[in-house]
Amino acid sequence: MEADVEGFLYPNADKKLCAGCGLCEKSCPCVSTEPEKHFPQKAFIAQHTDNTILHESTSGGAFTAIAQRILAEGGVVFGAVYDRSLHVLHAYAETEDGISAFRNSKYAQSDLNNAFSMVRKFIESDRRVCFSGTPCQIEGLLKFLGGACPGLVTVDVVCHAVPSPLVFEKYISYMSEKHGALIKDVKFRDKNPYGYKYSQMAHYGKNKELLYYSGVETDIMLRAFFSNICDRPICYACKFKKRYRVSDFTIWDCPDPGLYDKSFDNDAGVSKVLLHTTKARELFSETMNLRKKEISVDAVCDSDKLMTQSVRENALRRRFLKDLSVRSAREVFEKYFPDSVKVKMERGIRKTCLILGVYKPMLKSFKRVGKIVKRMTAT
Ligand SMILES: Cc1cc2nc3c(=O)[nH]c(=O)nc-3n(C[C@H](O)[C@H](O)[C@H](O)COP(=O)(O)OP(=O)(O)OC[C@H]3O[C@@H](n4cnc5c(N)ncnc54)[C@H](O)[C@@H]3O)c2cc1C
Fold this sequence. Notes:
- The chain is an alpha+beta fold.
- The chain has three domains: 50-156 and 241-307, no CATH class; 163-230 and 313-339, no CATH class; 340-379.
- Helices cover 36% and strands 17% of the residues.
- An eight-stranded mixed beta sheet has the order 5-4-6-7-11-12-3-13, sandwiched between helices.
- Strand 1 (2-3) and strand 2 form a beta hairpin.
- The protein is globular.
- Flavin-adenine dinucleotide is lined by residues 57-63, 79-80, 88, 102-108, 110, 132-134, 157-160, 162, 251-253, 271, 306.
């Protein structure tokens, strides 16, 4: 696999060794796609019962509960982690402590390394395996293995899109320079201090001390991610955004749990879980550590257009990534995502409300007013 100028990895065959059999293209899910087959599904909202795990997870910790179930059977779990330089890659773990590093979404494409070969090895030695990743990674894995295997449980996410690893690398070096300290851990979706319903970035130093936190409107990496300026080109016409998937489970955020059950609405995080297979149904019924409630499959699938629709490419994408490959990260981020008066005000008002202890009541009032305005404009 070789990185292009935008920082994305692509396969590069050694022409001298290639036998020209075409198997690589046949097993590439982007080149040879399968038609979507319909089958019965089940849907749940779920929240982990362990408060520490819930706090560390992106949404409700559904992934950890499924992984714990596999570990209890002596299985192996694959997920995305940071290495020491904060590159995102896939690794495996066989302990509760090991899987904790998989928690929290990393909004950069993960390097799969030799993960697929390792999955095959574990399956061949009769170990149960849980593999979590983006929908394209799950389809790639199943093509690599030649189909679903009884011992394999796959968990994919409803994926916005995957940003370039190079953008994340440049962001880390720029922010380390700004903090005057090395960043040792990053949480793209930290629930401190604003709670689950507001996406925020946090950086931690070498003694796990908090170096920085900033929200979705003000942190430059989250602004880049949500403005669709740095994703892999194929994400803008993603073939894997669909309701009926090849994975066993699909998990994603539930920012509005009150719509389904008010008792879940505690701002600690809730996952939506879609079960595609009999294997998933059996496993999920035995999955402990989760408070869960069954909900309508149609309602949950219709609630999020990112399940089936690709994000629209930002018109400045090419220029942004080209600039980033030749100019300093500081120059480029400051040009495309300036710390304008509006951004400073947004950050300032939110922090002031938090210090004054009025953040959550204010948020509730804004939401209520928003709902009234929506109702009035609809009638
Ligand atoms: C790139 C990306 C984009 C996403 N976009 C959306 C979205 O638009 N809307 C939405 O509702 N949900 C989205 N999600 C899913 C969401 O962020 C949560 O993962 C989901 O709510 C499940 O949360 P959890 O608490 O159960 O588990 P988490 O603690 O989030 O763990 C989930 C699993 O995601 C895997 N993972 C983390 N980062 C990566 C990565 N870079 N590549 C592959 N796998 C990874 C980990 O291995 C882990 O097993 C996205 C996730 C990713 C990785």
